């Protein structure tokens, strides 16, 4: 199994655990509803797929010569940015998806990576 897939799996597991924690906190504080659950699910799935697209883009970029790598990475960045915009737009427009429930999981990979690096003594 290649390194990018391993890291994606680690992040996916972390996103799943943080999403469960998010659901638990919403349940405890009494603001859990179907729209929030849909938002958490939607945001979490998108976040993992977005992270996978990023890892595949980086993996391919390092094999290209620098000028082509910049164009390729830039193009993929724009694609991921547009996809994020579409996900947020769908979340805003759909009454059955909570926007905050969608947005918060988008930060989970950052938390997971920071946590992993601090555990290893990195950063």
Automatic annotation (TrEMBL):
Q: Which Pfam families match?
A: ATP-synt_I
Per the record's keyword annotation, is Amino-acid biosynthesis included, yes or no? no
Topology versus the membrane, per the UniProt entry? Multi-pass membrane protein
TM annotation in the entry: 12-32, 38-58, 70-90, 96-115
List UniProt keywords, sorted A-Z.
Answer: Cell membrane, Membrane, Transmembrane, Transmembrane helix
Domain of life from the UniProt record = Bacteria
Record localization:
Cell membrane
Q: Which InterPro entries match?
A: ATP_synth_I
UniProt KW Transmembrane helix keyword: yes
Record's protein name: ATP synthase I chain
Origin organism is Acetoanaerobium pronyense
């Amino acid at each position: 199994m290649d390194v990018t897939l391993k890291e994606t799996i680690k992040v996916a597991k972390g996103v799943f655990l943080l999403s469960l924690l998010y659901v638990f906190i919403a349940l405890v504080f009494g603001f859990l509803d179907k729209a929030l659950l849909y938002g958490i699910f939607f945001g979490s799935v998108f976040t993992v797929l977005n992270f996978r697209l990023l890892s595949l883009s980086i993996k391919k970029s390092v094999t290209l010569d620098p000028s082509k790598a910049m164009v390729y990475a830039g193009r993929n960045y724009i694609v991921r940015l547009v996809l994020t915009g579409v996900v947020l737009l769908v979340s805003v427009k759909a009454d059955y998806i909570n926007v905050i429930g969608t947005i918060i999981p988008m930060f989970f990979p950052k938390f997971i990576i920071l946590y992993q690096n601090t555990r290893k003594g990195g950063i």
